[in-house]
Amino acid sequence: MSALRDLGNEHFKAGAYKEAEQLYTEAIHSHSRSDPKVFANRSLTRIRLNDWPGAESDARKSLELYASPPFTSGKGAVAPPAAMKAHYYLAQALIAQRHVSEALTEGMTAYRMCLDNGDSSAELLSQFVLRAKQAQWQAKETGRLRELNADLRVIEELLEGRLQEDLKELQTRLADGELGQTGFEEERRILEKEAEDRRKRVRQGMSAEGKPEMQERNVPDHLIDSITFEIMHDPVITPSGASYERVGLLKHLRATGLDPLTREALSEKQLYPNVALRNACSDFLENNGWAVDY
């Protein structure tokens, strides 16, 4: 029953994503319409192919199946640990399509499931959630700055339009076989970095014109708790050297008893206040009142 899926897995591991996608599709049409793993696998394959709508659709279907018998037993039942991957794939597909708020929600769901189940992907998911939260904040900042300056709005919309045209042309070259997947990814990263650099230069130029309200606002990564993804107020440090907000970490320890990063046994007695970080957080919040909304 899983022969086509297994063959798809082999092609995926070899980097033959188009072939893997086709095999997963054949598996679904043949006998796996109710197998959430096949839809999750095809979702990841479509992520590799930058088919974001397809990846989103497959991830949603996988989660729909995981929420039904025999994977769950009735209303209010907890989703199985395997559903964590589908939540993460959905989050990746959504953020690529700029549905940032829902991507953050799905990423947080995957991250909490990861912590609850002692999965080794905690650090990877933590990085994704932080990136999604930063993207959400940046979207708010973009709205604020564009409200303050109509010229900025026009310039940035032109830059965004140019980027989308360049990406569309790049996608066409990939579809026509002019570029391989690796070359496509490299050129896409270059285009996005160039666009981001232009955007930063425009904003820096406008903030340098004696308009402090045009200064872009950001929260330093080291002040953000990697469990709650909020700015810390009472950080504590673990034996592994990582710091967390005390309340969030204690809640996690009551549930699992494990260090979120190393997965080793950890107790409250092993935690110590991180005074330097607490002072840094306090100073930042005192001088940047807007950050309470981060």
UniProtKB/TrEMBL annotation:
SUPFAM superfamilies: RING/U-box, TPR-like. The keyword Isomerase applies. SMART domains: Ubox. GO terms for biological process: cellular response to misfolded protein; positive regulation of proteolysis; proteasome-mediated ubiquitin-dependent protein catabolic process; protein polyubiquitination; protein quality control for misfolded or incompletely synthesized proteins. InterPro entries: TPR-like_helical_dom_sf, Ubox_domain, Znf_RING/FYVE/PHD. Keywords: Isomerase, Repeat, Rotamase, Transferase, Ubl conjugation pathway. GO terms for cellular component: cytoplasm. It comes from the Eukaryota. The keyword Isomerase applies. One of its GO terms (molecular function) is ubiquitin protein ligase activity. Residues 218-291 form the U-box domain. PROSITE patterns: U_BOX. It catalyses: S-ubiquitinyl-[E2 ubiquitin-conjugating enzyme]-L-cysteine + [acceptor protein]-L-lysine = [E2 ubiquitin-conjugating enzyme]-L-cysteine + N(6)-ubiquitinyl-[acceptor protein]-L-lysine. This is U-box domain-containing protein. It comes from Cyphellophora europaea (strain CBS 101466) (Phialophora europaea).
